[in-house]
Amino acid sequence: MSRIRQNVIITLLIILFNGLSFGAGAESPRYIFLFIGDGMGLSQTAAAELYLNAVNHKSDPIQTRRELSVTSFPVTGLMTTHSADDYITDSAAAGTAMASGIKTNNGFFSSGEKGLLTEHFVKKGYRTAILTNVPADHATPAAFYTRRLHRKAYYEIAREMMRSPVEIIAGSALLGNTPRAKEGRPGVFEGDDKRVRVSLDKEEIKWPDEPRARVLLIPDEEMGQFPYTIDDPANVIMEKAFLSILDRLSEGPFFFVIEGGNIDWACHNNDAATVVREVISFDRVIRKAVEFYRRYPDETLILVTGDHETGGLALGSETAESLSPALLREQVCSSEMMAIRTKGSSESFQNIVITFFGEDFYLYIKERGKEELLKNRWKDVREETDVYTRLAFFEELTGLFAGRAGFSWATGGHSGSPVPVWALGEGSLSFTGLYDNIRLYEKILKLIP
Ligand SMILES: [Zn+2]
């Protein structure tokens, strides 16, 4: 064998060896974050990013700078989201597909015969946690610890949560523990389970001494959901909870699921101003995970996706010549907060619009000849004690307000659009391409050594 040929062979062997060792490392991250923006499709992310571009660089020429953290992730994929019985999924079936690799009908959790992702991670010695800004027994978080039940069987879901091997489950409330859900049955915490309830709204989260105690983190004052960012911009409860959980998990290998549930709720209300701020605050939590990744780049994987798109949000509208995302800033609170704040109100339609959306939007309504109709609608609903009746009225206004800024909504429900998957870190390359949401489960499982 010639010396040249010998050198070539040795060089090839070195390349092969390095490639193999790189491949092995790339397949087994120790720290895995799975962020799920509920209802967060490409449009919700793009709307938030354009909003930041418009607000932060007002006088500059039009550009699409990477203002969000997630949009700078090097790997992107696309995921289809249909359920077993509908092209348009709900959160139970979508969460189930990702958490258990099985398609179910809308409304239902998995039979779980392949095992839930969280259970596989527990078996492999990973620590596990779930954090959401909506109730801990709501569909998306529940899909990661429950089986077979219907999404509305809150009491049974909460009981399963107490037994689940997932170490930390955190949310804004526990729907299964309300008097209506219990219906004379014992409270969710009664019994011989070992899950400790810890308060989330104190200055500092007081963890139990037992380092692996199974914990439920819920605020003392149970909220329906954490406040929308637009209603309480200084509230950083989600970031605080995220960092505190991360601190508790960080010496272990871990699998950490984080849901931004408020995005979906604001999309159902067709409330674009609230949605963009929710996506931005969810991205702030993602940024904290990126900081963690920078400390352990060879061992960390961050995945960010949506379970489905909600609202059929379009970046374009029949009622505006162009897209003016900065106009969304004129809305002062969420449509839900408007409905709450106007309880028993005798304010005029004009005052209501100016208070919540500003003078220019009132003029816009007048110019478009919609004032009389909406004024009469307001007269009908302002006496209503039911918050949802007033909410429906404010949804009409936020829909119109979005149209003025150049956005439009196709539905108050979910849509069948595929959702983006962003990936950063070890093993991220396997998340490129277009695949179905049950494949996300398989791709994540393949990463476990
Ligand atoms: Zn939804």
How would you characterize this protein structure?
This protein is α/β, with parallel strands linked by helices and 449 residues long. The chain folds into 2 domains: 27-313 and 411-446, Alkaline Phosphatase, subunit A; 325-404, no CATH class. It has helices at 3-26, 42-56, 91-100, 117-123, 139-143, 154-163, 179-182, 237-249, 261-268, 272-295, 335-341, 349-357, 359-367, 371-381, 387-404, 437-446; strands spanning 31-37, 75-80, 127-132, 168-170, 196-199, 215-218, 254-260, 300-306, 309-310, 414-415, 419-425, 433-436. The strands form 2 sheets. It has a 10-stranded mixed sheet with strand order 5-6-4-3-7-1-8-11-2-12, with helices on both faces. Residues 8-26 have low confidence and may be disordered. Zinc ion binds at residues 39, 91, 264, 268, 310, 414.
